[in-house]
Amino acid sequence: MTCIECNRNLSYIDHKNSMDNYGVELCVQHQTRLEKVVKKNNTPIEAIKLYYGLKNAGVTPMLEWWDGKKSIDLAISRVKLNIEIDTEYNIITHKQAINDLEEAMHSFKNGFTTIRIPNVVIKYYLRETVNNILGIIEGLKVNIKAI
Ligand SMILES: [Zn+2]
Question: Are 82 and 114 in contact (CB under 8 A)?
Answer without folding.
Answer: yes
